[in-house]
Amino acid sequence: MKKPTVMIIKSSPWRKFQIFSEHPEYAAIFNVIERYKSKIDFVLVGSSSTSTTSFYLRDDIIAWDIKRIGLIGHFTYFFDFIRILFKHRTNLVIVLGLDQIPPVAIFSLFSRRKYVPIFIGEFKYHGRRNVGQILHRLFIKLFGLSLQISSKKILKAYALSQFVRDGVEKVAPNIKGRSSIVAYPLSPIFSCLQNTANSEEPILLTVSGIEQRKGLDTLIHSASQIEGKFKIMIKGEIRDPVYMRKLLNMVKALGLQDKITFNTQVENYSALVSYYNSAYSFVFPTREDCLGVVVLEALHCGVPVIATSVGGVPEMIQNGVNGILVKPNDPIELANAISFMLKNNDVREKMAKNTRHELSRYYKGKISLEEAIDQSITKLLD
Fold first, then answer.
1. 212 Cβ contact list (under 8 Å, min separation 6)
2. Domain spanning 5-186+365-377 has what CATH number?
3. Which fold has domain 188-362?
4. Which DSSP category does 198 fall into?
């Protein structure tokens, strides 16, 4: 008897999975695959900037990386995606990401297959250009319509934060009461550290992809307002080369070359531990984020966080207890918060002690991403 097929879809390329194998999304997926591989055939789908290809990832697990770059690439991705869904006659589709929902919804309308949308992704961000705002509004309408017309095929829905769940229920009221919030249990490597931050020359760390959405320009502007000794380390891959050049020009124009360092080298996920371990504080100036997993990583490592009060971030940070919340796009308020942390090491130490304790508030009443995927597959087998 042929085994049922489960397709798991992410927005990132599967060819990079070895680098990020300890990331909570990858770890959850492969733990589930290991548990059910004797009963189920798994197909993994991701996106890529190179040509659409399929390959074997671990034994007999088929993975697809679909080309998706530029405006035309987004349209061709849509059709390639639907073609692959039908090619594998998938019994259950598990979707990690908002922008993957519309093609899966279309597939569900023309098949008897069910799917599980796990809403991981920014819900509101559209950039600062007028075209971006128009495209954003169109996407939100398409996203909401996709959930409504395919609601009977949705086995279960999960959101990564209350912020995302509220946004989904607003555009797709039929989902209300049918979704749960999932949490990210991190690898143990992030929870057994002794922080070695040096208060004499404190390092302010931020970990994020280098793109406008992450608000790194706000952080650089704020640095010019901060007095005393400090270093800023910006760790992350370059997602927007034009924005990267803009940041480098800002650093030079403000005379901050000796204060701000970029590390854009792609490293194994576990390498982040050493960066958190040496950080005096973690700074996250993002403009939009569904959650901000890097905030969780910092808190697990005992590093107090200064972050913008957007998206799911306030669900992890209790202002004044394990970190400080500030408005987005406000370099003065961000500079004041950083200066306060630098000048009050006793407060910083108290917040550092609270980081892991306050994480219980974040995890309370939530299931893990692995449990969400596991529950969905169990329903399929039943």
1. 127, 128, 240, 243, 287
2. 3.40.50.2000
3. Rossmann fold (3.40.50)
4. -
Whether 188-362 and 5-186+365-377 are alike in CATH topology: the answer is yes
Q: What is the pLDDT along the chain (382 residues), one digit of tens a residue?
A: 688 999 999 988 898 887 888 888 999 999 999 999 999 999 999 988 888 889 998 777 999 999 887 667 677 888 888 899 999 988 999 999 888 888 899 888 888 888 999 988 776 555 555 666 677 778 888 888 999 989 889 988 999 999 999 989 998 998 888 889 999 888 888 875 667 777 788 999 999 999 999 999 999 999 999 999 999 999 999 989 999 999 999 999 999 999 999 999 988 888 999 999 999 999 999 998 888 999 999 999 999 999 999 999 999 999 999 999 999 999 999 999 999 999 999 999 999 999 988 888 889 889 999 999 999 999 888 7
Locate tokens 């249990």: which residue? 185
Residue-range domain boundaries for the chain: 5-186+365-377, 188-362
Q: What span, in angstroms and rounded, lies between the C-alpha atoms of 199 and 379?
A: 52
Q: Could you write out the DSSP letters of every residue in 3-66? A: PPEEEEE-SS-GGGTTTTTTSHHHHHHHHHHHHHTTT-EEEEEEEESS--EEEE-STT-EEEEE
Which pTM was predicted? 0.90
